[in-house]
Amino acid sequence: MTSPPNLSSMISAKIQSTPHQRITFASYMDLALYHPTHGYYTTKPSVLGPNGDFITSPHLSDDFGQLLAVQFADLWHILDQPNPFHLVEMGAGQGLIAADVLDYLQQHHSDCYAALTYTIIEKSPILRALQQEHLIHDKVTWTTLEELTPITGCFFSNELIDAFPVHMIEKHDNQLQEVYVTTQAGALQETLDLLSTDKLSQYFDLVGIDLLTDSYPDGYRTEVNLAALDWLDTVARRIDRGFLLTIDYGHTAQRYYSPARYRGTLQCYYQHRHHDDPYINIGQQDLTAHIDFTALQNHGEHLGLTTLGYTQQGLFLMALGLGDRLANLSQSISPGPDGFNQLIQKRQALHQLMDMNPMGLGTFGVLIQGKGLENNISLKGLTIPPMG
C-alpha cells in the first residue's frame, strides 16, 4: 500500500528545509495524522468502525453511551443541578456517543436534559462533517477549546489522547536521547540526538521515573506525550466548576515505563491489523501510543484538578449498571430465532465492553478529575456493585 500522493515527499521536503534536516518523531506523527490535505484523521472518511481500521466502545453497543449518560446525570446532581449544564465531548468520532447520551437523558433524565448544552470539540474536518450529518440536534454545537468560555459541567473523551503525537526517547550510552526523523537516499530514516526540549526530562521528574538506573537496558525506547500535558493545561482553564472524564488505553507510570516494556507502546493500525512500522502506509494508517495516567493525575494536581478516581472501564460500567443490563437482557429480546440471535449478539457486545483480558476494552483506564468541588464526593461510576 502506497501513501497518498505527495505526503511522503511533503514530509521529506519539510525535513530538508530545517536547519539540521530532521524533525522530531512527534512532528512526524503530527504530519502523518493531521496534515491538512493528506493526514490520516483529516482526510480519511471511515477510520472508525467495522469498515475502518479499528472499532471503539460506542461501535459495539449503544449501552456504552447510555451508561455514560447515567454518570452524567449523577454529575449534574452533584453540581446542584446547574442550568445550563455543559457536556463537552472532545474528539467525538462519528457522533455515536453524543446521540446515545442525548437520547438516554431525554428519555430517562428529562430534567437534566432540559438543562443540558452539548458541545463537541473536533479537530478533524472530515469527522466534524460526519458528526454534523449524524447529529441534527438543537442541543449540539461545535467549537474549539480556545474559543470555549469556562463551564460548569463535564469535559470528557473516549480514546482521544492516545492519538496525540508523542516524542520518542531512547536510552543510549547512559543518556536520554531523542528519536528524530531524517532522510537518506530519498527514504525516511531515524537518527538519535540530544533531547529537543528540557520538558522531556522534566516529564520523567513529574511521573517519578528515572530511566538512567541500571534497571533499564541500553537501547530502551519509550514515548513521552507532552501534547497531553498541553491539552490538560487548556482544559483545566476551561473548567469553572465540574469534572474531567478521560477514558483511554494506558497505564500508570510504573507500568508504562516498566523495564520489560523496552520498545514502548507505539502501535500502527491498518484495516483492523496492528504492527510497529510507522513509516509505511503514511497517512493511511493510525499511529497510537498508550497514555500515562500518572502524568495526567500529577500534572492535573498542579493545575487545580483533584483526582476523584481512577479505575478500569469494565468496573466503571459495572458500577453504572452494565451487570443489571446483562441480567435483564433476555427480558428485552423478542421470542423466536431472530430474537435469540439478537440476544447472543447483544450479550457478546456487552461482554466486550467489560472484557478484562490484557487487550480487552474492559482494561481501559477511566480517570475522573474535578475542580471547584466540595470534599468527599461519591461518584456512581466509582461505586463498584457487589458481585453475585
Q: How are the elements arranged and paired?
A:
Layout: H1 7-17, E1 23-24, H2 25-34, H3 40-43, H4 57-60, H5 63-78, E2 85-90, H6 96-108, H7 110-115, E3 116-121, H8 125-134, E4 140-143, E5 151-158, E6 167-172, E7 175-184, E8 187-193, H9 199-207, E9 221-224, H10 226-237, E10 239-248, E11 250-251, H11 253-256, E12 267-270, E13 273-275, E14 286-288, E15 291-292, H12 293-302, E16 306-312, H13 313-319, H14 322-327, H15 337-353, E17 365-371
Parallel strand pairs: 2-3, 2-5, 3-4, 5-10, 11-15
Antiparallel strand pairs: 1-7, 6-7, 6-9, 7-8, 10-17, 12-13, 12-14, 16-17
Structure description:
The structure is a single chain. The chain is an alpha/beta fold. It is built from 15 helices and 17 strands. The protein has helices at residues 7-17, 25-34, 40-43, 57-60, 63-78, 96-108, 110-115, 125-134, 199-207, 226-237, 253-256, 293-302, 313-319, 322-327, 337-353; strands spanning 23-24, 85-90, 116-121, 140-143, 151-158, 167-172, 175-184, 187-193, 221-224, 239-248, 250-251, 267-270, 273-275, 286-288, 291-292, 306-312, 365-371. A hairpin with a 2-residue loop joins strand 6 (167-172) and strand 7 (175-184). The relative contact order is 0.14. The mean pLDDT is 91.
- Percent of residues in helices: 25-40%
Q: Largest beta sheet, briefly?
A: 7 strands, mixed
Mean pLDDT: 91
Structural class: alpha/beta
Q: What general form does the structure show? A: globular
DSSP summary, beta strand count: 17
Note the quaternary state here.
single chain
Strand fraction: 15-25%
Question: Ranges with pLDDT <50 over ≥5 residues?
Answer: none
Q: What is the distance, rounded to the nearest whole angstrom, between the alpha carbons of the first and last residues?
A: 50 Å
Strand order of the largest sheet: 4-3-2-5-10-17-16
Question: If you compute it from the alpha carbons, what radius of gyration comes out, rounded to the nearest whole angstrom?
Answer: 22 Å
Tally of separate helices? 15
